[in-house]
Amino acid sequence: MTGLNQVPPLTGYDAFAADPTLVAGVERHEASWARAQLTEIGTAAGGEQAPAWGERANACPPLLRTHGRTGERIDEVEFDPSWHALLDRAVGWGLTGAPWTDPRPGAHVARAAGFYLWSQVEQGHLCPVSMTHAAVPALRADPSLADAWVPALTSREYDFGLRPVTEKAGALAGMGMTEKQGGSDVRANVTVAEPAGVDGEYVLSGHKWFCSAPMSDVFLVLAQAPGGLTCFVLPRVLPDGTRNTFRIQRLKDKLGNRSNASSEVEFDRTLAVRLGDESRGVRTIIEMVAATRLDCVAGSAAIMRQAVVRAAHHAAHRQAFGALLADQPLMRNVLADLAVESEAATTLLLRLAAAVDAGERELLRIGLPVAKYWVCKRTPVTVGEALECLGGNGYVEEWGVARLYREAPLNSIWEGSGSVNALDLLRALRDRATLDAFLTEIGAARGVDARLDKAVTDVLTDLADPEGIEGRARRLAERTALVLAGSVLVRDGDPAVADAFCATRLGNDWGQTFGTLPGGVDAASIVTRITPDA
Q1: φ, ψ for residue 352, nearest 5 deg
Q2: What's the CA dihedral at 166, 167, 169, 173 to 10 degrees?
Q3: For residues 432 and 443, what is the distance between their CA atoms, to the nearest angstrom?
Q4: pLDDT of 385-397, one tens digit each?
Q5: What is the dihedral sign for C-alpha 155, 36, 399, 390?
Q6: Cβ contacts of residue 197 below 8 Å, gap of 6+?
Q7: To the nearest whole number, what is the mean pLDDT of the chain?
Q8: Residue pair 504/469 in contact by the 8 Å Cβ criterion
Q9: In a shared domain, residues 393 and 520
Q10: Distance CA 379, CA 397 (A)
C-alpha cells in the first residue's frame, strides 16, 4: 500500500520568503535592494530542477583525465552537466564577484544571503565560487595582476575550459596552501620558487596535498622563495596558449562534497608570478582566507537551515500516536531547539557580512574565527538530530538529509580547523583595538537580558586570565562565539528565539542534547517560523 501517512516532497516554495530570519537580516543590513534576485535564488532553491541537479552532481562525481589519446599530459577534470548547470546559475547571480563590481551598501550581505540560499541546494560547486570571490581582494594588492584577472573573475559569464584568460568570458580561481608534511602549518611548506629572470616571474617545483577545483583558471599558491614564504599567482594556461605544468596526481575520495574535485597536484618548474613581497605570503593571502571563512559560516548555516526545514516539513505532515508529529510536545521541543541553533547561525552570519560592508576589520578579526569555530562545529550535531526527526527515512539517500550529514563536518576543517581558529582568536586578542571593537559590539546589548550580561562578564573574566590560555583556547572560542551570537540575537533576532538562546546556550538551563528546552520557551512560535509553506 502506498500513500498512507506519507510526507509530500519538500518542493515548490521560495526558500528566501520562507526564512524570516534571512528576510529580516537583509532588510536590517541595507540589502533590501537585492530582494528580487534573492527571491529568484530562493524560488530556484525551493523548486524541483536545482535540487535534482544537486543530487545528480553528487551521484556522478568528477573524473580525472591525466593523458590525452596520444599520451600527452592534459590534466583535465570532467564534470556531469548538472555541475555546470549549478555553477552557471551561481556565476550568473554574481556570487563570484558582485560586491567587487557593485560595492553599494549591503553588497556583501546580499551576496552572503544568496550564497546561503544556493548552498541549500548543493555545496560542492560553491567551493570554486567561494575561492573566486575571495581571490579578488588578494589580487588587488598588485594592480597589474588585478587588471589581468579581476574582470574575468567577477564576470557573470560561466565559461568552462582551459584557455588563456584573454580568450574567456569568465574565469574561476582556486587556492593551494597545504602540503602533505605540514597541513595547516603552511610555514612548513617545501615547494620551492626560483626567480625566472623576468621581474616578478618564478618557477615552482613541489606539490600541494589538497587543491580543490583544479579545473580553475588561476590559483593563489604559497611557496618558499629565496626571501621566505611567498604568495604566487599560477595560471593553468599561459598567455601563448600552452598549458602550464600542473600535474593532477589524483582526485580525493572524500566523505562528502563528492561533486567537487579535490586533488593532489605537483609542480615541475611551473610558471607563476609573485603577488606581494617575498616572505609576506601569509599576510598577502590572508584576505582570501578571511573571505572563504565567512563562506564556511554561510555554508554551514545553510546546511543547518536545510536540515531543520526538512525535519519541520516532515513533522508537519507525518502522524504518529494519533497526532501530527509537530503537535506533539516532545517533537515540538526538539524542532524548536534545532530552530534556535539555525536562526542564531544565520543571524550571526548576516551581522558579519554587514561588518565586511562597513569595513569593521577589528571586529572581523575576532568575529570570523569564533563564528567559523562555533557554527561549523554545531552543524554535524544539528544535522544528525534533524535526520533523526525523519526516523529511518532520514538515513536513506533519496530523502535528502543523508547528503547533508556527510557534508556537515567539512567547513569545520577547511580554511583552518577548530584549533587553528581558536588560536587565531588568541592572536587577535593581543591587539587592543580588536578587543575594543569586540567589547563595543557585545556592549550594545548590555542590560537587555541578564543571562547575556552574566555570560559576557564570565567571558571577560576568562579572557583576562593568561594562565594556561592556549590550552583553554577552544573553550574561549566557544564562549566568545556564544556571547557574540547572543548579543546579535537579543538586538536583532526574534524575541522567542533570543529568549530560548539566552536561557539555554548562555543561561545553562539546557541538557546535553537537543529537545531539552526549558518550560516557558515559546516553542510553538519558533517551530512555526521554521516550517516552510510547501
Answers
A1: -70, -40
A2: -60
A3: 16
A4: 999 999 999 999 9
A5: positive
A6: none
A7: 96
A8: no
A9: yes
A10: 19
What is the H or E stretch that residue 389 is in? Answer: helix 361-389
pTM, two decimals, is 0.97
How far is the C-alpha of 123 from the C-alpha of 404, rounded, in Å?
9
Query: For the segment 393-434, what is each residue's pLDDT rounded down to a tens digit?
Result: 999 999 999 999 999 999 999 888 999 999 999 999 999 999
Q: Which tens digit of pLDDT belongs to each residue from 439-452?
A: 999 999 999 999 99
- Residue among 101, 227, 217, 226 at smallest CA distance from 159: 217
The mean pLDDT value for 86-114 works out to 98
Q: Which set of grid coordinates corresponds to residue 230?
A: 611567498
Residue with cell 580568450: 167
Is it the case that residue 1 has pLDDT exceeding 80?
Answer: no
The answer to whether the beta carbons of residues 326 and 339 sit under 8 Å apart is no
Q: CB within 8 A of 201, min separation 6: which ones?
A: 195, 271, 272, 273, 274
**Same-domain pairing of 447 and 433:** yes
- 216 and 268 belong to one structural domain: yes
What is the structure's pLDDT at 187?
A: 85
What are the CA-CA distances from residue 124 to residues 16, 128, 224 (Å)?
A: 21, 8, 30
CATH code for position 396: 1.20.140.10
Cα 524 to Cα 296, 318, 339, 413, 530: the distances in Å are: 30, 17, 11, 35, 10
Per the CB < 8 A criterion, the answer to whether 134 and 295 are in contact is yes
Q: Do 120 and 306 meet the contact criterion of CB atoms below 8 Å apart?
A: yes
* Of 330, 365, 243, nearest in space to 511 by CA: 330
What pLDDT, on the 0 to 100 scale, is given for residue 292?
A: 94
Amino acid at 312: A
For 47, other C-beta atoms within 10 Å of its C-beta total: 16
Instruction: Measure the CA angle with vertex 346, ends 340 and 352; round to 5°.
Output: 135
Number of domain units in the chain: 2
Q: CA–CA separation, 527 vs 316, rounded Å?
A: 10
- Parent domain of 199: 171-279
Residues 381, 352 share a domain: yes
- The CA distance from 229 to 272, in Å, is 14
Helix H or strand E encompassing 262: strand 262-275
- Beta carbons of 82 and 54 less than 8 angstroms apart: yes
CB-hemisphere CA count at 13 Å for 121?
33
Max Cα–Cα distance, the chain, nearest Å: 79
Q: What is the pLDDT of residues 52-87, one digit of tens each?
A: 999 999 999 999 999 999 999 999 999 999 999 999
Please report which confidence band the pLDDT of residue 496 belongs to, taking 50, 70 and 90 as the band edges. Answer: very high
Give residue 247's identity as a one-letter amino acid code. Answer: R
Q: Rg of the Cα trace of the chain? A: 23
